[in-house]
Amino acid sequence: METKRKIKLKPAARKISTIFGLILTIILLLFIVYEVNIHQLTKLGYSKDAAKSIIYKFKKKDVMQAGRNKTLNKAFESSNYDEKNFTTYTKVNYQNHKDLIKNINALVKIGYTNDEINMILSHGSNQDVKNFIKRGKVKYLEEFYTIEYAKLKYYDRYLAYMDSSREDEETSVLYVNLGLDKEDYKDYVDVKDFSYTMLVNKHYKLDEKFVPNALATIDDEYVKEDGIKANKTAIYHAQEMIKKAKEEGYNLFVNSAYRSYQEQEEVVETYRELYGDSYVANYVQQPGFSEHQTGLGFDFGSLDTNQFTKSDEYTWMEKNCYKYGFIHRFKTTYEDITGIKNEAWHYRYVGKKVAKYIYENDITLEEYYIRFIDK
Ligand SMILES: [Zn+2]
Fold this sequence. Notes:
Layout: H1 11-43, H2 48-56, H3 60-66, H4 70-77, H5 86-91, H6 100-110, H7 114-121, H8 126-133, H9 141-145, H10 155-165, H11 169-177, E1 189-191, E2 204-206, E3 215-217, E4 229-231, H12 232-247, E5 252-256, H13 261-275, H14 277-283, E6 297-302, H15 312-320, E7 326-330, H16 335-338, E8 343-349, H17 352-361, H18 365-373
Parallel strand pairs: 1-2
Antiparallel strand pairs: 3-4, 5-6, 6-8, 7-8
Helix pairs in contact: 1-2, 2-4, 6-8, 10-11, 13-14
Zinc ion binds at residues 292, 297, 299, 346.
């Protein structure tokens, strides 16, 4: 009979194998613990790279306490992570900026508080923040940047405008955002896209080739001179408005609406010859700077009088135009902002919702644009 031969190790070898087994077990256990930690962190919303970095830095407990936090995640992903700014990372709102962590570190170093850092980061792009950091600590941070639409990149212009005009912070921010600290017709914004809330004025210019969306012709019964064009939706609402006015005994008509860049050039020349330079400066916009090129600007007239300003139709329009999506664009009280004297006859289609807001709050389209469109 043959018995199984047992392999008998020598004592020394047995010892080595035990130690080896033990090491393997420890490695395996460590690996499991590591994987469990990674899993917990990724489940909480941290990326795998961030989770690894958290574990290597022995910050798991603190991170678990902080909970899901996008800024913290980015900090641990970044090579710029700075241990002493951990709390700041947890308190600063995430922004999609390439150098977010580097910028936060720099802002802490300058001496800004967490609230101030949040204020700075939310008012500009990555590049704007980088440029802002170069100024060191600024004097009027809260004064400007508690205003929602204030822009980091305009800090110097706000300061200069406030100094020279003696206006308050809010006015300075609004006026600079609108380019009112610059000369008319110079250094303007190029307006490219058509929309019912688009802004065209002495600081926002349309290209020579710009043509509004959906140009159509106004029906004969609403005009004196045939062939006046405008945006189709604006025409629909203008016609509805004229119909309603007529039912109530008011005789409105459309005197002018869309004018191309070239037509505006002709208008400027005609008025210059008729009334001179100062009239043109006050009432007629240079080509590209006229709202008539948008197809949304309308001049209305009264069939009963040539003086629209004194007509009952004007009074009716003042009260009712917003219901049809139109606003009275140039008023005496708006002159500082629009740069245009009162024009009783000129209205702008912006859509019903926006028109109602502008009417109820008695603001210019410029203010609406800065507050809600150009953020
Ligand atoms: Zn007009």
